Amino acid sequence: MNVGRLRKMILLILTLVSLSAKGQLAHLSPKAEISIITCGPWQGELYSAFGHTAIRVFDPENRLDDAYNYGVFDFNQPNFYLNYTRGLLYFKLGVYGYPDFRDFYVYYNRAVTEQVLNLSLAQKQAIYNYLEWNAKPENETYRYDYFYNNCSSRVRDVFADVLKDSIQFDGSYITTSYSIRQLTDLYLKHQPWGDLGIDICLGLPMDIKAAPYEYMFLPDFLESGFDHATLRRKDGTLPVVKYKQQVYVPRPAKIPTSLIHPWYAFGGFLILTLALSVYDIRRKKLSKWFDVLVFGIIGLIGALLFTLWTATDHRAAANNFNLLWALPTHLAVFAIYFKRSAPFLKKYFLAAGILSVLLLLSWYFLPQQMHIFLIPFVFALMCRSFIIARML
Questions:
Q1: Is residue 161's pLDDT more than 90?
Q2: Residue partners of 100: CB distance under 8 A and separation at least 6
Q3: Does 22 score more than 80 pLDDT?
């Protein structure tokens, strides 16, 4: 056999061995560790304001150091935008080298915390096997839900599904009774427009009081949940977290703020509406361009909210009380608004004004928490409705 053929055979054998090894799960060594990685919030984007979570598998003997990230989505997947609109959100589990994953969050000056877990070797192997199975192309995708099945709660569920009753989460440290909406509000103090948008689009399901276990849809509370959890092993019951370390402490940074706060925007709109209404009364003529523009936009918002509730799978958008001011019927009404002979227009706007009065009076008593920024806006709609009803 000549040297060339021998080299080709050796290369072929090495390739086959490499491919075979790649398809096999590693047997974790006693030095292996599994950790929860919590990445702090970042106010640069709305989606990053809540933080992030991943699972780290580290085994120096097997040269493993991977981050398992349930927060991956693909814009190129078929009908992505259509499915997103319909509430059919599909995320997947991505696996990355942990140093690259960590450095991404360090680059954006986001806190990184690691909780190394007190798992036995058999428990570590079971978690690792599950993650590797979940990362296969046929298993990597899951149906995403903002609050009940997201990239943080999936991490909790991995351990709950694999370890079963061996892991116990003690929620007694939770002393608040926040709703889902109130929990999200905690992270959006510096993003008033994002907070307002969420509160407008999402309805009564957001106001359900969250159980301590459900708090863990947020990474910070997932971290706290593991801090207070216990693990049953053959050698006894131990805290789940063996030790905790701050991988990266963020530098002090200026928090971005909105150029125009909703209070100023809606306060300005109220002043403009009142001033224009006084002007219309004095000249005894409605500024119909203003009414068509404002109530037309409100009608479009109402149509969107109604569609989110009735025609999509966005569960949190159901039973939305914002439809009490964002009336979809405004769209139909303004199709005939220029026809002064329409007899029901006066009654329609009188009813819309009365509905606004009742809404403002019951603002803090409704089962759905209505956003306080909307009060001057709804007050403006109320005033304009009465003006239209009076002058038609």
A1: yes
A2: none
A3: no
Residue 293's pLDDT band (boundaries 50, 70, 90)?
A: very high
A 10 A CB-CB count for 29 gives: 13
Beta strands in the chain, from DSSP E residues, in sequence order: 33-39, 52-59, 64-72, 90-97, 112-117, 141-143, 167-169, 229-233, 236-239, 241-248
Q: What is the CATH number of the domain that holds 56?
A: 3.90.1720
Is there a contact between 322 and 378 (Cβ–Cβ < 8 Å)?
no
Cα separation, 16 vs 13, in Å, equals 5
Asked whether residue 218 falls in the same domain as residue 321, the answer is no
Which is nearest to 206 in space by CA: 69, 367, 349?
Answer: 367
Its domain, for residue 228, covers 29-174+212-248
- The reported pTM is 0.86
d(CA 236, CA 68): 28
Q: How distant is the alpha carbon of residue 391 from its chain centre?
A: 45
Burial of 244 (0-12, 13-18, 19+ CB in 10 A): middle
Beta strand 141-143 pairing with 33-39: unpaired
pLDDT value of position 258: 72
Asked if residue 232 lies in contact with residue 164, where contact means CB atoms within 8 angstroms, the answer is: no
Q: Domains in the chain: how many in total?
A: 2
Distances (CA, A) of 225 to 23, 169, 218: 34, 6, 10
For residue 2, pLDDT beyond 90? no
Residue 40 sits at φ, ψ, to 5 deg, of -70, 165
CB atoms near residue 170 (< 10 Å): 12
Sign of the alpha-carbon torsion through 181, 182, 185, 186 = negative
Q: Kindly state whether residues 386 and 294 are assigned to the same domain.
A: yes
Q: What is the pLDDT of residues 176-221, one digit of tens each?
A: 999 999 999 999 988 999 999 999 999 999 999 999 999 999 999 9
Q: What is the pLDDT of residue 6?
A: 41
Q: What confidence category does residue 7 fall into, taking pLDDT thresholds of 50, 70 and 90? A: very low
* Domain end among 248, 275, 298: 248
What is the mean predicted confidence (pLDDT) over 128-142?
Answer: 96
Strands 241-248 vs 236-239: parallel, antiparallel or unpaired? unpaired
Q: Where are the beta strands (DSSP E) in 112-202?
A: 112-117, 141-143, 167-169
